[in-house]
Amino acid sequence: MARPLKSISSRLVLAVLLVNAVLLPLLVYGLLTVVRSVQEDVFIDHVRIYARSFADMLLIKGQLQPEAELQQHLDSCVLSGRCVHAELDIDGTILTSTLMDSSDTERFLEDYHFGEHGDDVYYLSMPMQLGDKMAILRLGFDELPTQLQIESARRTTLYIVAAYVLLSIVLVLWLGSWLAGPLQRLRQQSRMIASGDYARRLSVTSDFAEIADLSRDLEEMRSALVGAHEELQKEITSREAAEAERRKAEIHLRHMHRLQSIGTLAGGIAHEFNNVLLPLLLYTDLALEDLPPDSAARPHLERVMRLANRAKGLSEQILTFGRQAEDTHKVAMDMSPTIAEAMSMVRALVPANIDIRLNLDSEVGAVLGDPNEVQQLVVNLCSNAYQALAKGGGVITVSVDRVTVSEQLVKAHPRLHVGDYVRLRVRDTGEGMDADTVERIFDPFYTTREVGKGTGLGLSVVHGIVVKHEGDIIVASKVGEGTTVDVYFPAADNESKAGMEGQVA
Amino acid sequence: MERRVPVIQRTPQILLLVTMLLSAESSWADREVVLVTSRDSAVESLSTLDIRKAYLGIAVLVGGEPVRAIRRRDDKQLNEIFLQSVMAMSLKSYERRILSLALKYGTPRPDQVDDAAALVGLLESSSRGIGYMWRTDAEGEDRVRIIGVLWRGR
Questions:
Q1: Interface of A with B in 32-61 (CB under 8 A)
Q2: Facing residue for A41 by CB, picked from B25, B92, B154
């Protein structure tokens, strides 16, 4: 069972009360004994000396004074209040002056200690030698005044002791508060730190070296703990960021693999489809050459020819996505003029209420690429951006700049490498996309538009072009705020440098 | 609960106590304290003042020689009577006075003995020695002579 905790003040008060309870009775008893003893000794000395002096006074040259004068002296002794009984015994002749009853004085119990017989009178006898004879002076002194003095002294002593006890308790309470104050402040500060206020310093001033040392040690401990806590927080944040990047890269990689698989499958189908289409086109063309111009079948064959060509276009787009097309001609090209040219086509496509802003850096340098495909990429991206804008219009911003890809970006997008890239950014202020949509936008035939209003191949083609150019595409979108698409093309000088390094290796 | 003993059952003890007290009083009442010397002492008599002087260590000359006061410590009653009726001071005052005189003036402290036999022995060895005893004791001792009565019980 846990012991109940007590405060320093209560402990001190308890200790003082305990000490007082043990020592004070002894002290009081000792004091009262001393007071009583002193008073009694003073009384006894006084009465004995007085009695002796009185006895000596009654003698003149060794003989007693005349009887009348002796009686006067005895009366004077009693009347002056010095004694309550005076008696002189001269060989059986007794002279008496007393305030007592005769029954009280008959027995005459001589006292040798204060209050010895409990009669409140101290009796003593004083022998007086008269040659061969002997007279005895007997005196009785009132003990009551001395008893009252003793009682008064006792009461005063008790008052002083009571005052001492009260004062000592007050002093101990103050002392306890003085001692415990810094500790309580230390406790409050510690609790605030424990509740999360790590920046609070533990600082308590005290006259006691032990408390000051404790405060200093606790502050050092707090500083060390806060430092460790901050390090730990940084480590946790860093690990969480790394984990997020790893997860993002994993998702990206899986997405790429999926796109690659889809591309391979679609490319295979498109290739076989082309094998069917080419004879169809060839023989339809031959049939059209053989038909007379006014043949009723000509319009039908021409329709077959148009549809077959459209199918061929679709097939080529699928091949582009699946990197199956072989007609890519990469050259060192300047991005800004190429994009500016593509944008002139875009301007012709979009309505006037859509604001197109160009921010093309002319110093971005060259990239190795196919200008036709890059232009197709720009047109497709802008077309998507335009589709995403509301009917009321909006802004499409196209910019080109040169950036250096960092290790951090490479971790999230493993297709990129650390080095210089030319970045094409297409940003719209449209309705934006959720995360699920963003993940699927490069899938062939995936579209958010109404049925029949899009093939769902536009961004698939864009993806294929980017892959062919050994770049990467990063989409950032937020519902209600718009979408930003960044396309990274390796800078030509960067690539040639990598190539040269490869040759050296 | 405490069992109270009837008073009647305590009567024998009470009677015994009263008897003892009365006998003690009677033993005090009829006794005398006397001043004694050796049988062949040069001291014939001393006044009360001389006795007080001698017992404070102040020189009292008899035949040109100082009186030697001998105090007894063994008999408490005897001492109390002596201090009250002769010295007229309490024991503490008496001892303080003795010490004070010895320190200030170099007066000799009175001799002290612890029984009557030792007192008699010292008196025999000194021609000017004085002591005090109960009269009954003094009368039963051939080697001492009574030279005065210091106190008489009523």
A1: 41, 44-45, 48-49, 51-52, 56
A2: B92
Inter-chain touch B25–A109, beta carbons under 8 Å: yes
Q: CB B90 to CB A109 under 8 A?
A: no
Cα gap B43→B63, rounded to integer Å: 9
Q: Confirm whether pTM is higher than 0.80.
A: no
Interface test with A, best of B33, B34, B80, B84 (most A CBs within 10 A): B84
User: What is the rounded distance in angstroms from the CA atom of residue A446 to the CA atom of residue A457?
Assistant: 7
Give dist(CA A35, CA A411) in Å, integer: 98
Does A278 touch chain B if contact means CB atoms closer than 8 Å?
no
CA angle A481, A483, A484 (to 5 degrees): 130
Residues of B in contact with A48 (CB under 8 A): 83-84, 87-90
Residue A374 CA to residue A339 CA, distance in Å, equals: 8
CB A121 within 8 A of CB A100: yes
What does the DSSP 8-state code read for residue A323?
T
pLDDT tens series, chain A, 505 aa: 556 667 777 788 888 888 888 988 898 899 889 988 999 999 999 999 999 999 988 887 777 888 888 899 999 999 888 899 999 998 888 899 988 877 666 667 889 889 888 888 999 999 887 777 788 999 999 999 999 999 998 899 889 988 988 898 888 888 888 888 888 888 888 888 888 787 778 777 877 788 888 888 888 888 888 888 889 999 999 999 889 888 888 887 787 777 777 777 777 788 888 888 888 888 898 998 888 888 888 989 998 988 888 888 878 777 776 654 455 678 888 888 889 888 888 888 888 888 999 998 888 888 988 888 888 899 889 988 888 886 778 899 999 999 999 888 888 788 888 999 999 999 999 888 888 888 888 887 777 777 666 677 888 888 888 888 889 999 999 988 899 999 999 998 755 544 434 333 3
Distance CA B75, CA A266 (A): 141
* Min Cα separation B88/chain A (Å): 5
What is the distance in angstroms between the Cα of A124 and the nearest Cα belonging to chain B?
A: 8
Is the CB of A125 less than 8 angstroms away from the CB of B85?
Answer: yes
B4 touches chain A (CB under 8 A): no
CB A341 within 8 A of CB A375: yes
Cα A265 versus chain centre, distance: 57
CA distance B46 to A266: 158
B84 vs A129: CB contact, 8 Å cut-off?
no
A274: Cβ–Cβ under 8 A, 6 or more apart, which residues? A312, A315, A319
Among A residues 151-210, those touching chain B with beta carbons less than 8 Å apart? none
Nearest C-alpha neighbor of A102 from the set A80, A87, A122? A87
CB B10 within 8 A of CB B128: no
